Amino acid sequence: MDATPTFLEQLIAAGHLIPMGVDGLYGKSGVFEDILDKLDRLISRHGAAQQAEVMRFPPAISQQNFEESEYLKTFPHFAGTVHCFCGDEREHRRVLDCVAEGKDWTEGQKASGVVLTPAACYPSYPVIARRGPLSEQGVTLDLLSYCFRHEPSLEPTRLQLFRMREYVRMGTPEQVLAFRQHWLEEGEKMMRSLALPLIIDVANDPFFGRAGRVLAASQREQKLKFELLVPVNSEENPTACLSFNYHMDHFGLIWALRTPGDEVAHTACVGFGLERITLALFRHHGFDPKAWPAEVQAVLGGF
Prior knowledge:
By secondary structure, this protein is of the alpha+beta class. It is 37% helix and 25% strand. The mean pLDDT is 96.
């Protein structure tokens, strides 16, 4: 029997991940958070030339905006809703009785009108749409949010709640494709400065069901999505740490985003998985950042 600890077990033993009794849900050490904060600042330095408008949203959106986004059409298996107790004292007593008896007490919970954010960019589209037509320069946003996906796993890179840093571009097809190409190059440059092994490859989203397989094939054929992959859990199945996505006019049609010429706006985004990059650094440089290569420490601002 192989007694070698898994990467997850090593992270827990080192104190960098703190189990919370649910797969894919962990507390983080101060060292973990320090690295993640330094990564966030590094991303800001690489994105400074974008002159992006900074927005920070809570990790939840309205149920109405969530439904309008059409997320449920393609990713129903990832969605998470917020339900709350809305009963009277009698129903409260019943809840307490269920807890005391070890029964399911959540049956009486009702939808609160709030849905957990699935991706950092989702709250931004209706906000920008309310402003009216885009300017000639389009719109570039700098976003950061906790995101939720119901994807319990023993892989430490597959968390149910995680932080996503994004830059989002809205404008003409030429503007957003130039944006994506810029970040394909800049993202690789940033990750190589961290001395991480990587490849960039065409990818697809994990769409749901039989129709989802057709969507995934089309996405790959059109090269709408690229991922920057780093071996973290294994060499055979590297982890997507950055994603570069061209949505075409999908969100423009949903939210009536228009260019100054009254054309449907196109959108693109680059997403940075902050926990995943942190875990990649642990995997390749060790659990003590003070022992990391000097050039990596310098890039991150020292430890």
